[in-house]
Amino acid sequence: MLKFGCSAGALTAAMLVSAPAFAQTSTAGTPATSSSTDAQTTANPAVPSDAPQQKDATTEQSTDGDIVVTGFRSSLENAVAEKKNRDQVVESISSEDIGRLPDASIAESIARLPGLAGQRVSGRAQTISIRGFGPDFSTTLLNGREQTSTNDNRQVEFDQYPSEVVSQVLVYKTPQASLIGQGLVGTVDLRTIRPLDFGKRVISVGGRGTYTDIDKFNPDSKRYGYRVNANYVDQFAGDTIGVSLAGSYIDEPYQFREYRSGGYSDGGPGGAALVGFPTARGTSTRLKRFGGAGTIQFKPVPEFTSTLDAFYSNFEDSQSRRGVELPLGFAVGDFFGTSFNSAGATVTDGVVTSGSFNNVQALVRNDAQRNTADLYSVGWNNAYKGADGWNAQLDLSYSRTNRSEFSFESYAGTGRGRTRGATETIGFVTTNTGSVFTPQFDYTNPALFLLTDPAGYGGDNVVQAGYFNDRRLTDEIYQGRTEIEKVIEGSFLSSVRFGMNYTRRVKTLTPDEAFVTLPGGAQEAQIPSQFLLGTFDIGYAFNGVGRALAYDPFALLDAGVLALLPRTGAQDILAKAFSVKEDVITSYLQGNIRQAIGASELTGNFGVQFVVTEQKSTGLVFGPDGNNLTRTQGDDYVDALPSLNLSLRLPSDFVFRVGAAREIARPRLDDLRVALSYGVDTGNQVNGVNVPIIRGSAGNANLRPYRATAFDATIEKYFGESGYIAIQGFYKDLTSFIYRNQEVAFDFGNLPPPINANLLTTSVGTLNQPINIGGGKLYGVEVAGTVPFGKIVPALDGFGFTGGASYTRTSIRPNPDAPATDIPGYSRWVANGTVFFEKYGINLRGSARYRSTFLGELVGFGASRDFRRARDELIIDGQIGYDFTAGALKGVSVYIQGQNLTDEPFVTEEPQSSLRVNEFQRYGRRYLAGATLKF
């Protein structure tokens, strides 16, 4: 804290000294533009009363001949205005132009904001961490309304939302009473265009091509893709009716090479770590998505505006994952028959870095996945703003997601069973990028590699030649909100707002899984030649043997070459199903402050939310002999969430902010599942004596939210509305945290007695489930700024920088005596920056994003969650473009973008050594070329 105070003091002094070097705008010498009801955007129910109006970024020259800033510089000025004029701590992104955010992906744009970081999935940014917390602790809104999601939890996957239909993104780092659906560390609000606010007619069309620099390694993959979009905004009937329409279609490939170690055994010399069950594979993804948004506004009189908006997304993500899997370290001394040759092994840092395995029977995997999702969202807002100071609004909305996820694994090997097929000797070398293997077989030989169960996964009864998983998810949100506000003239209290919101959410997951087998009782089958697609590139993990057999497993299933053996009653499948319903009633009271203090001004708000929650979950209790019981459990509780935001605005364009609030984040929806399985552990030992006990596992329908008390303080220096420098400090005291896989005492006496119940002396056993326990601290500091260099050195007009860096510390503990644990998504250091030049129609940008090591959340087969320590990463992007402002090509913009220019890998590893790599993924570089036309 001493360092923080000294740094803050030094920065303040530096800004005071440098302030005269910057030209002041019209706000110099007068109180800074403050929050007031006069600036309210009534068409958006969640927009606080201090919302500034977005600038028109589409005009090059005003009617009086003055030059108006456009493009990326204009989007930065809009972001500076948002940050300056609000009383919350806010970061924002505005569209450079209609249908044109600064990045091709919303998630990538958000990840460039101070204190935020993205995690790449399949080569593209998909989830966002705010201030060191993963997506479980933040929420995402669309036009101020809560949205359904395509995963098992609440967090939104941002690749569902085309950047072309979003005009602005706001990230609230501090809450206020009137912000519904707020998260514990932040709230992301995606905004679409409001045509009457936009104020003029615009038609825009655009397109781009995409190219990946890595050659396609699956025969059915692509290296080229495209994207097209169109936008239309207009006003009619004397500006009493406004219409906006936006649509985007994308068909783009993503490819990556991947190495997975499968963990590490202790079977090396002296217990050294030995690569366990590695896989080398290439994944090709083809993303197809149509997204559309539309808004109709009706303003018959100045006091009343009715707004109807809708959003739709159709999403299809088809993946081909092909590779070779090797039973190595974990197969030694097991029924796999693999043996390790320790005589020639070398050991470095406790890891076997070279050696060989004998009697290895490889698996050739041809896996496929098809994810489809439809997302619907519609909202209707009616806002009244009276001349007498009374304002009111009513907002109704509905959101729904239907998702289907098909995962199909298919295996080929030299024979069925672990010791029945041909085996080989495989050498290996392990480094900090994974292991490289030297096999002997020809993996492209269809006479050698057959459809079968090479690993014996199905035991003696089932020839498991693969696995099939079909997950169906439905998510619905109904929301209604009403608010009344009274503006008070000439008072310290500028207005008072009271409102109520009701939200019902129902989420259901239905899994369907099956063994993939061979029909007619066959043990092995050759792949029919008509279904062979050729070969695929195994990748850099194999020396000498670069390719293996490729086929489409879905085609084999459709033709009857493979068959499904359903597992309809399997307990492990039924336990994944859940149905959760939440009813949340939020009432709030907020007072807004505006008071002149000499030449300065104090603005802000204070208030409280009362949140009443009723949650219910329905699922199965797995009794003995398949006697399953359906039960519904749940809880209800009340949270009082006070908040305070104050901003002291000086005539020198300094703004000092403080904030305090009580914050919550609701439990994961899949953690609320009821499903409970149990049985008798007959091997339980107590002081060397065998004492049988009941053990079970379940979700927890009685979970309460994560809860924290938060404090924020910021010092901000603005240069009109063209730039700023800020230092932001925050502190959160988490009083309630949710830990998963905790063993608690549980009385099974009210459930059917398990098998071997006669051995028990008590019905009290243990249950493994998520629970509310422990807490801890999260604190940090962020430095952010947008600096137009021309304000300092006129010769550098057009050049500038925007970005920031954050340092965060955490100490979350399940109990006071336990060691601190990592939070998914937490990075101690996060930094990003963009250097740009924009003038004479030329726009150049170079961007960098850095995050230090973090606990990454990966998705395994069947959407199971897997947490791995990810290495730090630095991602470099760039763009070159030109905007035609005159002549026959006026309104045309062309650009070339390069993404991941250094081909930064995504790597996870075990904490013991950097040689113990878990995943190593390379996505390659992506190049995009496109154009937009506006008229």
UniProtKB/TrEMBL annotation:
<dbReference type="Pfam" id="PF07715">
    <property type="entry name" value="Plug"/>
</dbReference>
<dbReference type="InterPro" id="IPR012910">
    <property type="entry name" value="Plug_dom"/>
</dbReference>
<feature type="compositionally biased region" description="Polar residues">
    <location>
        <begin position="51"/>
        <end position="64"/>
    </location>
</feature>
<keyword id="KW-0675">Receptor</keyword>
<keyword id="KW-0998">Cell outer membrane</keyword>
<keyword id="KW-0798">TonB box</keyword>
<dbReference type="GO" id="GO:0009279">
    <property type="term" value="C:cell outer membrane"/>
</dbReference>
<comment type="similarity">
    <text>Belongs to the TonB-dependent receptor family.</text>
</comment>
<feature type="domain" description="TonB-dependent receptor plug">
    <location>
        <begin position="84"/>
        <end position="187"/>
    </location>
</feature>
<protein>
    <submittedName>
        <fullName>TonB-dependent receptor</fullName>
    </submittedName>
</protein>
<dbReference type="InterPro" id="IPR000531">
    <property type="entry name" value="Beta-barrel_TonB"/>
</dbReference>
<keyword id="KW-0472">Membrane</keyword>
<feature type="signal peptide">
    <location>
        <begin position="1"/>
        <end position="23"/>
    </location>
</feature>
<feature type="domain" description="TonB-dependent receptor-like beta-barrel">
    <location>
        <begin position="550"/>
        <end position="901"/>
    </location>
</feature>
<dbReference type="InterPro" id="IPR037066">
    <property type="entry name" value="Plug_dom_sf"/>
</dbReference>
<dbReference type="InterPro" id="IPR010104">
    <property type="entry name" value="TonB_rcpt_bac"/>
</dbReference>
<dbReference type="Pfam" id="PF00593">
    <property type="entry name" value="TonB_dep_Rec_b-barrel"/>
</dbReference>
<feature type="compositionally biased region" description="Low complexity">
    <location>
        <begin position="26"/>
        <end position="43"/>
    </location>
</feature>
<dbReference type="InterPro" id="IPR036942">
    <property type="entry name" value="Beta-barrel_TonB_sf"/>
</dbReference>
<feature type="region of interest" description="Disordered">
    <location>
        <begin position="26"/>
        <end position="64"/>
    </location>
</feature>
<keyword id="KW-0732">Signal</keyword>
